[in-house]
Amino acid sequence: MPILKSGVAIVCLSAVAALSLGGRGGIAAPPAAVQAEPTNAEEAAAKKKAAEAAVTAKYEALVANLPAEEQAWEKVLQQHLGSFYLPHHQADKVAGRSNAWDFVKDDPTLPRVLLIGDSVSRGYTAAVRKSLAGKANVHRAPANCGPTASGIKNIDAWLTDHPGGEKWDVIHFNFGIHDRGTPVADYTARLEQLVQRMKQTGAKLVWASTTPIPDNPEQKQTAASIVERNAAAAELMQRQGVAIDDLFGFITPRLAEAQLPKDVHFNAKGYDMLGQQVAESVADALK
Question: What DSSP string runs through 61-98?
Fold first, then answer.
């Protein structure tokens, strides 16, 4: 019996060994590595990247066939729009959609107007152009102009990198929402530097007060910050002899129908309202 038990043990061990050695006396290969399937996030990111690359290629082909003057403008936009706005602009051009940064072919018999401002200004640009059609060539700075600190760095390019150069009849400008966290003294000091630079163009200047923003503790954003900076800026403009377009006062009674809920931006109706108001201020400055 002990011998039989021993034999059984040997047989069992032999069977295990055979399995371990792959059945042919060699060392078994390690199990093949399992390829991890892409996550939904990875797949989405890859698809987005591929789609953006396709749009960019179409945009570049489109630009290559534009007249030289329009190609030059697109190159300016490529330099200044940044990683957020440039893909949107490219997609618009490929789809044949108009936007705030459309090339403006000047009518030499009409005055030249430049709009400077952030995304709110971008939103009402089309409405201003529509209202002043046949009355003025309405251009826009080639950027989402952001805070006054960005203005100091880029104002020369915004004033000069246009067909027709730095010759402006009216410059309508705003800085404020992106300066809500800037100390008021710094904000007004930079704003004064920008006013002095814009005055060098010989244009009539119109400062637009910053439109209201909602309180948002998560983003450290307060409605009062805009009120405070508007008051400081208005005092500066009065000292500098700059006309004031009080967009804050104009749109505040209309916020319920014009502004997106809990947002600094506006709906289509709101941008049309603002654009009409800006156009009227510009028209007054052109008289």
Answer: HHHHTS-HHHHHHHHHHHHHSHHHHHHHHHHHHHHT--
Q: How many CA atoms lie within 13 A of 222 on its CB side?
A: 8
Whether 44 has a pLDDT exceeding 80, the answer reads yes
Percent of the chain with pLDDT over 90: 79
Mean pLDDT of the chain: 89
Tokens of 225: 């910050």
Q: Are residues 83 and 127 in the same domain?
A: no
Secondary structure (3-state) at 20: helix
Return the structure tokens found at 138. Answer: 């309405």
103, 130, 160 - which closes a domain: 103
| Residue with the two structure tokens 């004033």 | 159
Residue 158, judged by CB atoms within 10 A of its CB (0-12, 13-18, 19+), counts as buried
The C-alpha atoms of residue 64 and residue 195 are separated, in whole angstroms, by 37
Q: In total, how many domains does the chain have?
A: 2
Asked if residues 205 and 171 have their Cβ atoms less than 8 Å apart, the reply is: yes
Average the pLDDT over each of 18-32, 86-100, 187-201 and give the range with the smallest value: 18-32
What is the span of the domain harbouring residue 159? 112-286
CA distance 216 to 132: 36
